[in-house]
Write a structure and sequence with these properties.
291 residues, alpha/beta, TIM Barrel, eight-stranded parallel beta barrel, 11 helices, 12 strands, 16% strand
């Protein structure tokens, strides 16, 4: 699967921003129809986003759209407008449980059918923003079309309100829920995505928070400001030192293997097949980033 180190939100009502998106070098773009769009501009934003998807894809941008959710389900009007061959997927806010994915899968399949699109081509990024959705994280992750679980926990956001915790920079109050999202995503073989850092001009704080998320097992983050993209891409990419380290590990192990040895010391550490498998996986990811 292509990397999802950075997913940049862009309000659908800010059409004048669209021409700059290719210069931000984000792995994917989320054109937003939901919380960043004033209610009286929802219709206009929908038209802007629908028209922008194909041109942005021609610029080699990977496009997702966050749709609105009402009291009874996701916006059919949004979905019917935005689903098209160039759209990579839909970001689903405020999911309450796996039944939401099942219902939406049927709706999206019907839209794809009517538009002569391949059934199943529109993927889902499931954003876990309620206590119930976090509780059922694995059951959501295994559903058809889901490719990412977003375990976002911004200050004073939906998750904080739903769970009732008091947000801190240290993040101890969010450690369990973030870990649960990572575990559920990995168990279901989908990607765990973190974020959202709200203090967008505090780049040192962003870096520290993102490094903590990466240590937990997240593969990338949703961001709300272009200045955050390069830092996130850096943190969620293997460093040059790591690449050199893992290449050296593989070379040393393969040399030993030819001599009938499958457990060696490399730079003072015990290395066997399990460690080499991890090293190859990291180097493959580094190559995918370059592509």
């Amino acid at each position: 699967m292509k990397p999802f180190r950075s997913m940049l939100f862009v309000p659908g009502s800010k059409q004048n921003w669209f021409s700059k998106l290719a210069t931000y070098y984000t792995d994917s773009i989320i054109l937003d129809l939901e919380d960043s769009v004033p209610n009286h501009l929802k219709s206009e934003a929908r038209k802007n986003v629908t028209a922008a998807i194909a041109p942005l894809t021609e610029q080699k941008q990977r496009i997702y759209v966050r749709v609105n959710r009402g009291p009874y389900g996701f916006s059919i009007e949004d979905l019917e407008a935005i689903i098209q061959p160039e759209l990579e997927g839909v970001v689903l806010p405020k999911i309450d449980g796996p039944e939401d994915i099942e219902t939406l899968t049927s709706i999206v399949s019907e839209i794809e059918y009517k538009k002569n699109l391949k059934i199943g081509s529109t993927k889902f990024v499931a954003t876990l923003e309620t206590a119930r959705s976090i509780y059922f994280a694995y059951e959501i992750a295994v559903k058809e079309r889901v490719i990412c679980l977003a375990g976002v926990s911004p200050k004073n956001g939906d998750v904080a309100r739903s769970l009732g915790y008091q947000w801190t920079v240290e993040g101890d109050e969010r450690l369990y829920i973030r870990s649960k999202v990572v575990l559920a995503a990995r168990a279901a073989n989908v990607l765990p995505i973190g974020g959202l850092w709200q203090d967008v001009h505090n780049l040192d704080g962003l870096r520290k928070a993102a490094m903590g998320n990466r240590k937990l097992g997240f593969v990338g983050e949703m961001v709300v400001h272009p200045s955050n993209v390069s830092i996130i891409n850096e943190i969620y990419s293997p460093s040059e030192a790591e690449i050199i380290h893992y290449k050296g590990m593989i070379d040393a192990f393969e040399k030993a293997e030819k001599e009938g040895i499958a457990a060696i010391l490399y730079e003072g550490e015990h290395i066997d097949y399990a460690h080499v498998k991890t090293a190859r996986q990291i180097l493959k990811f580094a190559e995918n980033i370059k592509k």
